[in-house]
Design a protein that fits this description.
The chain is of the alpha+beta class. The chain contains four helices and five strands; from the N terminus they run βααβββαβα. The longest helix is centred in the last third of the chain and has 15 residues.
Length: 147
């Protein structure tokens, strides 16, 4: 398995995977709009970076992240927005390898920490993060406002 940053050539695969993620959360499994992906990841002002875990030509999973400032004081943090492993690749160390690569990316960027959220009704994700030795943080409530 190798992990690398997604490139424009991966837009088709990312489109399909975003549909898989939507289906996982109970939504429509239709592929995501390729032009939206292009603008978000490879446009003038990229909104995120995506790491892809591959086995040969097969994409096994992804991690999407961006940077937040301020984190603590004037520090920067890496914010993991999405960690997804295809069903056929689960329990093979893909998520752990993606998390390790995120730690390298955060350290290389001078971040003081990695932050993320997890759905409280996703026991597999919660168990995975606990197995990494990371405990949930109390004291924050997540908000979302549609535009």
């Amino acid at each position: 398995m190798r992990i690398s940053k997604a490139a424009e050539a991966d837009i088709g695969e990312l489109s399909v995977m975003l549909g898989e993620i939507e289906a996982y959360y109970g939504g429509d499994a239709a592929p995501a709009d390729a032009e939206q992906i292009r603008r978000a990841l490879f446009g003038e002002r990229p909104a995120a970076t995506v790491l892809l875990a591959r086995d040969g030509d097969s994409v096994l999973g992804l991690a999407s992240y961006s940077y937040l400032w301020p984190a603590a004081g004037a520090d920067t943090s890496l914010y993991l927005k999405e960690l997804y492993v295809r069903e056929s690749a689960r329990r093979r160390g893909v998520a752990r390898a993606l998390m390790a690569e995120l730690r390298h990316a955060a350290a290389a960027a001078g971040c003081s920490r990695i932050e993320w959220t997890a759905d409280s009704d996703n026991p597999a994700a919660l168990a995975f993060y606990k197995a990494l030795g990371v405990e949930p943080k109390d004291g924050k409530i997540f908000y979302r406002s549609a535009l």
